[in-house]
């Protein structure tokens, strides 16, 4: 694995921003040296499949992860703290990263809209506390995509990432201490049973329903109980789908900069078609 400790590295705006971004932001390119302490892992929508993920990108963020002291009864907890570029320099003497985010601030001030005239770049980055409210202390997460026709949910273990994992704004997240409960929730979110029930309430575009958003959370799901046979079966199916999907992704030799996420999602579901059918049967028996 790559050693991220105490390195100075070159960072630049991703080329995809110029292709997929909106004006005027798509034309802004920021680059320069930065300290590696400000790199984190994330997953964008294009990295997430039902029960799997691939190529988690590295992102540069103006944050510190701070940790309080553990006591005899309470373990230490981690928190996210936003840092202005002046603080990055004053607190950590990281001149390179401070200069990088100075460039970000200049670009923001020059291009922000009238609606954002009173906001700083840090205000926008942490709007509604979507960054600083993230829970870094739970070992397991379920992420699902907000913008696709169907929910695409995957289970994550923090220990599997070489850098601290930060959830991107294009995804919704739930945190868990019990991985079996995480598999249970992922099975529900990826099910045809749940996704069909929200179609009449989704926004509709040229090609049909789009943007799952939070609508799928309106479909009732009982709280996970390991003692309930159907709950345990659904969890086991979620775990099997996760293991099979991740193994299939590794075997496919997919090129990082040359894949179609829509086609991959369709193909990945074919690999676990029997399990997906059983998930729907379990949910029908459980909920009807």
Describe what is shown at a glance.
This protein is an alpha+beta fold.
* Residue share in β-strands: 15-25%
Major pleated sheet: 3 strands, antiparallel
Query: Which word captures the global form?
Result: globular
Mean pLDDT: 92
Number of extended strands? 13
**What is the radius of gyration computed over CA atoms, rounded to a whole number of angstroms?**
21 Å
Helix-strand string: EHEEEEEEEHHHEEEHHEEHHH
Q: Which class of secondary structure composition applies to the elements?
A: alpha+beta
Strand order of the largest sheet: 10-9-11
Overview of the structural elements:
This protein is an alpha+beta fold. Helix content is 35%, strand content 18%. It has 9 helices and 13 strands. It has helices spanning 15-20, 85-92, 95-111, 121-125, 179-189, 192-196, 229-251, 261-271, 273-287; strands spanning 8-12, 31-35, 39-41, 48-49, 52-53, 58-60, 63-67, 78-82, 140-145, 153-157, 171-176, 203-205, 208-210. The strands form 6 sheets. Strands 10-9-11 form a 3-stranded antiparallel beta sheet, covered by helices on one side. It has a two-stranded antiparallel ribbon with strand order 1-2. Helix 2 packs antiparallel against helix 3, helix 5 crosses helix 7 (229-251) and helix 7 (229-251) runs antiparallel to helix 9.
